[in-house]
């Protein structure tokens, strides 16, 4: 098929669109709604060219056939949304620092141990913000474990290095944190080793079993459930409940607080959180 100008038509065929919908849902749980070709073009055309083809139809043919090494993961990485920044939704950190942590410190005074999970950690700013906040509170002598997980392996690589561009540093990070907890790394900034040692990053699919995880004092699962269908959302929240200490806290994004979770959780408001 050609356009009137004679150039090849790069529009994805209906069968291939359906194939990508099913493939992306199967591999990541992300629901790709109808009429989203612009999203596929923006996120997958570059990967298609990198794989030696020019159209999404050709990319589908590769996925259907030999599935070159790593191509499946690259498609998943390209389709996941990795928007994050330091101190995102600051009201959550304020609530944790001012109200929740004082209770946790009393609860764990004997073990002096705190455990947290950043369940969609992306490039690590959420987990590192938490680590810096805990040190600012004078908890450096406590046994603090912060787990960061994400489905996208590419963002986890950056999270482990703790290296960020100046633009990423300018998004939400207080200047006091920059001077105290980062050092120059060429044209970028790298978080200091004392912070990196507090956080461990691992790949994890939120649809997988969480039986071996936890227990955590608090789980941050913010701005990720919006990409799943309702049954998947409910299943994830139910499983997260099983990873929390009794009385533990689940932090959701501001658009996710109406998620039905039965009687597993009690919705609470602390300040603006």
Q: What is the 3D shape?
A: globular
- Report helical residue fraction: 40-55%
Mean pLDDT: 90
Beta-strand fraction estimate: 15-25%
Specify the biggest β-sheet: 5 strands, parallel
> Between the first and last Cα atoms, what is the distance in angstroms?
54 Å
Low-confidence stretches: 1-7
Total helices: the number is: 11
Task: Tell me the Rg in angstroms.
Answer: 21 Å
| Overall strand count | 8
Structural class: alpha/beta
The order of strands across the largest sheet is 6-2-1-7-8
Order of helices and strands: HHHHHEHEHEHHEEHEEHE
What are the key terms here?
273 residues, 11 helices, globular, five-stranded parallel sheet, three-stranded antiparallel sheet, single chain, disordered N terminus, alpha/beta
Description:
The protein is α/β, with parallel strands linked by helices and 273 residues long. It is built from eleven helices and eight strands. It has helices spanning 14-28, 37-50, 56-64, 71-79, 90-107, 125-136, 153-161, 166-170, 175-181, 193-196, 230-241; strands at residues 113-118, 143-150, 163-164, 182-185, 188-191, 199-203, 216-221, 244-252. The strands form two sheets. A five-stranded parallel β-sheet has the order 6-2-1-7-8, with helices on one face. Strands 3-5-4 form a three-stranded antiparallel β-sheet. Mean pLDDT is 90; it is low at 1-7.
